[in-house]
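Example 3.2
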Amino acid sequence: MSEAWDDHELLGRLRAAIEAAEAVPRDFVEAGKSAFAWREIDLDMELAELAELTYDSAMHREEEAAALRADSAVLRALTFAATQLTIELEITEGALLGQVVPPQAGEIHVQGGAGNGGPLEIDDLGVFVIRGKPDGPFRLHCHTHTGLDVSTSWFTL
């Protein structure tokens, strides 16, 4: 840019920057946000095993669209797997419905997403309910009565 600020040149460069930002794929932006969330990793949970995201129905939505009826409700399902425990989630309009597999009682905490929440009860069947949907990046930390500590990777709904 020249030393004297030319309004037309400045507007042209701003327009190009906005167009470049809009061209970035949404998945790439979400991955960047999730990586940024690691800056707040809770050191108290460092002994917890990390459960990696192994299934996200949103990634398979196009493939499943042909099989869905037009009037059926679309739920998002997520699966996080660790060596000894799997955390399955269904995201509904106003809640996260979950189950730990194998089924066992314990507690679940929501970390991040506009504050920490919990502990919430996990019943003997491994079922738990998180009312409302967290905003922004968050993760779940599960502590079972059998002594397992598992945290999901950070994710955003």
